[in-house]
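Appendix B. One record, verbatim.
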Amino acid sequence: MKLRILEFLNNIQEHNGVSISADLFCTCGNNKFVFSHTGKQTKGILAPYIIKKNKQLILQAKCTCCEKNIEVYNSTIDGSKPKTIEQSIDFLPFIIPKTSADKFKVIIKYNYWPENLKSNGLYSNYFEDCFIYIVENGKETKALIEE
């Protein structure tokens, strides 16, 4: 199965046949998003800002231009070991405390076992790890999630 959000990734870079990194872009061309999640928000100092809640995490990005919703990560279906959990889903907005920033650019990184990198010539959804970082001034600054 191909990487679920492949159509929303731009500037894909492959690293040593075991990982990729890419910028999140909407199909309208915009690269700033407002995020919501089903996890638990932390302070984000030495850990990611969003962690799993009840062993589940869904991260959604809403385009600030066309308002399209993109399910960026879903722990129940993504990766090589998805964990399906039956429960109600309540999305919470992501905001960084003590700042007015609510629109973010992000870079997404996936780590793979070499044999799982591609499926039918396309990057696969069978990744081992997913890292999503907020980009400020052209640099990755804060971990949004590390799953």
